[in-house]
Amino acid sequence: MTSHREDLLTPATEGSKRQDSAPLDGPPAQVAWLGAAATLATIAAAQIWRRESCAWLRPVGALILLVGGVCIVVPFALLRRHGQADRDDAYMSANVVVDRGLYAIVRHPQYLGYVLLACGFAMVARHWAVAALALLSGLCWYLQTVHEERYCLARFGESYSRYARSVPRLNPLRGVLRWLRRNRDADRVRTSRTLRK
Predict the structure, then answer these.
(1) Residue 24, SS3?
(2) What is the pLDDT of residues 156-178, one digit of tens each?
(3) Using CA atoms, how far apart are residues 35 and 50, in angstroms rounded to an integer?
(4) Cα(100)–Cα(51) distance, rounded to whole angstroms?
């Protein structure tokens, strides 16, 4: 019997349809709306509730906000440039799995950006209520990634399954380590080919 994680990373074949497979008309957005609402509530609460204790968290939160903003904006360009979407389609209508740039580090850089945005505002505000909203936001965005991966497996099949096995869902530290290892291995292969010539 396969684990739930393995089942998510295995594309459905004709003979083994999964009951929970997503329709191909677009990724599910129900949880994304909840995540967006929780993130906006976190931002609003951070404007209302602030504490002066642990002042060192404020610049750390500002840095996390900056990184979160980059993670949200950069994927628009990556998907548009490398996703081979039709000219009139939205950037999210990628026709191939994009595994370059931030997508080589984590599978869902925009959702990671939203999580970082919520965490950054929680650190800037340094209030328990803002931290609770940030936690709720992070949970919603994580659940959205799980739903969206079902859609991506149904749409892209084995190519997404391979991608999912080599790139972590939302863990940027693990993603950077794997990216460095892949680049090191690619350099070794190039070097050995050069030496053979």
Answers:
(1) coil
(2) 999 999 999 999 999 999 999 99
(3) 22
(4) 40
Domain span at residue 105 reads: 28-196
What's the total number of domains in the chain?
1
pTM of the predicted structure, to 2 decimals: 0.78
Residue-wise pLDDT tens digits, 9-64: 544 443 333 434 444 566 667 788 889 899 999 989 988 887 777 888 889 999 99
Alpha carbon 116 to its chain centroid, in Å, reads 11
Residues 6+ apart with CB under 8 A from 121: 42, 43, 45, 46, 61, 65, 130, 134
- CATH number, residue 117: 1.20.120
Determine, yes or no, domain membership for 155.
yes
Which amino acid would we find at residue 29?
Answer: A
With a CB cutoff of 8 Å and minimum separation 6, the contacts of 127 are 45, 46, 49, 50, 51
